[in-house]
UniProtKB/TrEMBL annotation:
Belongs to the NAD kinase family. InterPro entries: ATP-NAD_kinase_N, ATP-NAD_kinase_PpnK-typ_C, NAD/diacylglycerol_kinase_sf, NADK. This is NAD(+) kinase. Its EC number is 2.7.1.23. GO terms for molecular function: ATP binding; NAD+ kinase activity. One of its GO terms (biological process) is NADP+ biosynthetic process. It catalyses: NAD(+) + ATP = ADP + NADP(+) + H(+). Keywords: ATP-binding, Coiled coil, Kinase, NAD, NADP, Nucleotide-binding, Transferase. Residues 15-42 form a coiled coil. The keyword Manganese does not apply.
Length: 462
């Protein structure tokens, strides 16, 4: 219990750190606004400001440092740290090639036609091009490049001829028509070089240590596969995630709105911008062993985009789990297990277990039992600022198993606990239209939600 209390404190410290960062960003924003007001009388009166012409849509437009001198200050946030250039590395080894400067971008929040509504400035920090959130945005978010993206990371589903063919064609197009550098996983680079030495320019990494710095080298991630490829791509980023463009080459396509047949048009639009994004929040999960003496014995936290599942594995006994929300006891789960899901995962395992479908922008955590041995156990939807703790009691007959986005199963013995809270690094996925339209399309086309033959007009009348 002592180590779990420490774990909860650590989660709270993590949240506090994210909120402190957001508060610092908000302080900068207030300072910039004050500075913009001072500039207003000097320059904008004569020159005007490009963003003001967009003010009819009450867009919040974020300016770069260079624009702040003439920014009108009506609704501009001018805090934007210039990204550090990376030193070009003469080493020809593709694993060591450093990419040029990372593209900078700005985020704006649309008020979607609500011209009169007072616009609440969401606090989303995107220093150095890394998106970190302390609060969920309640408006559609637009991403606008301030400098053209230079490096794209392509994640391709393995063992698929169609995916490989598209990957080859897309890399050629990006290099020859868009002059964009491409980075792929080591497996993919080997496959490309077997095909032709032309692909020697494609970059990759040598060891997993480099994966930790992927977000500093990549401007955009493209996934070629199904929903699982999006999950896989997200799992490669243990911190900030660059914008992801998911192309659909799977069966359902909940997370993959872009059609591969039109990849040129889609990528032209994305590379030019601005484009809508959905900040898909992730859960950060810690396994705390009963044997842990102090917090240094924590295992590597795991980030999930869909859900973490705690189930009975191959045991024939019911799982028996004690659940806490912050420090309040929630319930004991006796059944096949429990799913703690994000809103992005609400249409996946949680839905199959009877949970609700929730729009990905809703700030929530889903608490869904798997085949509970109790008639009254119904799924819950909790706020996203809570920390959930699931513990295997000492009087449990069997063990439990935790799996993260359906992968990496970890055994939980008596006294072990799993602690989950919202991670400050969402997966920013590009929208085909916008967050809501894409979500509704996915449940209509992926699930055929409420698809019913229409009742004929003829028949009795009131
Ligand atoms: N009984 C179930 O429904 C069940 C069981 C196990 C895992 N899953 C889901 O599979 C996910 C892993 O996906 P995978 O592709 O790596 O494994 P997988 O290849 O076994 O695919 C499982 C199915 O889940 C779908 N899926 C994945 N994420 C989804 C989402 N956010 N919304 C709607 N459908 C989604 C995929 O399209 C695929 O059809 C897990 O995160 C879990 O949500 C579902
Ligand atoms: N680049 C990758 N490297 C390793 N594994 C991957 C990679 N991309 C995807 N996978 C794994 O392959 C499995 C299948 O991927 P994906 O779900 O995208 O294809 P699918 O199952 O054919 O499509 P759908 O999920 O829509 O049915 C997933 O479990 C995923 O974790």
């Amino acid at each position: 219990m002592r180590t779990v209390a420490k774990a909860l404190r650590r989660v709270a410290e993590g949240k506090a750190a994210a909120q402190a960062e957001a508060a610092e960003w908000k302080r900068k924003y207030e300072l910039e606004r004050a500075r913009n007001q001072r500039y207003k009388s000097e320059e904008v009166a004569s020159e005007g400001c490009s963003c003001c012409s967009a003010s009819s849509s009450r867009q919040l437009v974020v300016h770069t440092e260079t624009e702040q001198a003439k920014c009108c200050g009506n609704h501009g946030i001018c805090s934007h740290e210039v990204l550090a250039d990376e030193v070009a590395n003469p080493n020809s080894d593709p694993a060591c090639k450093m990419v040029a400067r990372k593209a900078s971008f700005k985020l704006s929040w649309g008020c979607n036609g609500n011209k009169s509504g007072q616009h609440k400035h969401e606090v989303v920090s995107f220093e150095k091009g890394d998106i970190t959130t302390a609060e969920r945005s309640s408006k559609q978010i637009l991403l606008k490049w301030e400098s053209p993206p230079k490096t794209v990371f392509i994640v391709a589903k393995p063992n698929s001829t169609s995916v490989h063919a598209l990957c080859v064609e897309m890399i050629r197009w990006l290099k020859e028509h868009k002059k964009i550098d491409v980075l792929v996983e080591p497996r993919v680079r080997e496959e490309l070089l077997k095909e032709s030495f032309y692909f020697d320019f494609v970059q990759t990494w040598q060891d997993d240590e480099e994966i930790k710095h992927l977000h500093t080298k990549v401007d955009l991630v493209i996934t070629l596969g199904g929903d699982g490829t999006v999950l896989w791509a997200a799992s490669l980023f243990k911190g900030p995630v660059p914008p992801v463009v998911p192309f659909s080459l799977g069966s359902l396509g909940f997370l993959t709105p872009f059609q591969s047949e039109h990849y040129r048009e889609s990528l032209e639009a994305i590379l030019k911008g601005p484009f809508s994004i959905t900040l898909r929040h992730r859960l950060q999960c810690h396994v705390v062993r009963d044997s842990a003496k102090d917090e240094l014995e924590f295992e590597e936290p795991i980030l999930v985009l869909n859900e973490v599942t705690i189930d009975r594995g191959i045991s024939s006994y019911l799982t028996y789990l004690e659940c806490y929300c912050d420090s309040s006891f929630v319930t004991c789960v006796q059944g096949d297990g429990l799913i703690i899901s994000t809103t992005s995962g609400s249409t996946a395992y949680s839905l199959a277990a009877g949970g609700s479908m929730v729009h990905p922008q809703v700030p929530a955590i889903l608490f869904t039992p798997i085949c509970p041995h109790s008639l009254s156990f119904r799924p819950l939807i909790l706020p996203e600022y809570v920390a959930l703790r699931v513990q295997v009691p000492f009087n449990s007959r069997g063990q439990a198993w935790a799996s993260f986005d359906g992968k990496d199963r970890k055994q939980l013995s008596a006294g072990d606990a799993l602690i989950c809270s919202m991670a400050p690094w969402p997966v920013p996925t590009a929208c085909l239209v916008d967050s809501t339209t894409d979500f509704l399309r996915s449940i209509h086309e992926g699930l055929h939600w409420n698809l019913r033959k229409t009742q004929s007009f003829d028949g009795p009348r009131d």
